[in-house]
Amino acid sequence: KEFLVEISGTTVTITCPLTEGSITWKSTGITPISDERKHVIENHDSTPVNLSCSSGDKTYHMYLNARVCTNCEELDALAVTGIITADLLITFGVLILVYYFSKDRKGRASPSAGSRPRGQKVQRPPPVPNPDYEPIRKGQREVYAGLESRGF
Predict the structure, then answer these.
(1) Do 56 and 84 fall into the same domain?
(2) Are the beta carbons of 49 and 64 closer than 8 angstroms?
(3) Is residue 83 a part of any domain in this protein?
(4) Which domain holds residue 60?
(5) Which listed site, 3, 30, 89, 137, has its alpha carbon 20 to 30 Å from 123?
(6) Domain tally for the chain?
(7) How many CB atoms lie within 10 A of CB 14?
């Protein structure tokens, strides 16, 4: 048998597994605190507590290390499922919109390309050669005469 622990805000409710007889609760060195099956700790400060409940010769011990907070919101499973489903639907909707808008743009020509006529391509003349790299002409050999190869 196990304890049943319920936490809501800063209130912790513990239910003893014993069902019959007068139940006595004890907490870390403090005198008996209640005589009911359920023990309620209000304004719990998240400090660990050793609890025990006993009835006659049967005793159950429990170490309670419950984290509580004052500003927490409780969400049931339906609310969490709804939030996740809505998030996925919105994400897929945005993906579909981006896909369709980008798909339509592929076939369109850009505005600058539309102003040029679409006829045969006119060949451009070759680029003007750089004067620093012109080939040696027959009459200009004296310019390069000082660049003789040296023997090593």
Answers:
(1) no
(2) yes
(3) yes
(4) 4-64
(5) 137
(6) 2
(7) 21
Question: How far from 18 is each of 6, 37, 39, CA to CA, in Å?
Answer: 17, 7, 12
pLDDT bracket for residue 144 (50, 70, 90): low
Tokens 């049943």 label which residue?
A: 4
> DSSP E strands: which ranges in the chain?
4-8, 11-15, 24-27, 38-41, 49-55, 58-64
- The yes-or-no verdict on residue 7 having pLDDT over 60 is yes
Q: What is the pLDDT of residues 42-51, one digit of tens each?
A: 888 888 888 8
Letter string b/e over residues 44-66, b meaning 16 or more CB atoms within 10 A of that residue's CB: beeeebebebbbeeeebeeebeb
CA atoms of 43 and 12, how far apart (whole Å): 8
What is the spatial distance between Cα 11 and Cα 5, in angstroms, rounded to a whole number? 11
Whole-Å CA distances, 129 to 15, 76, 136, 142 = 96, 79, 13, 22
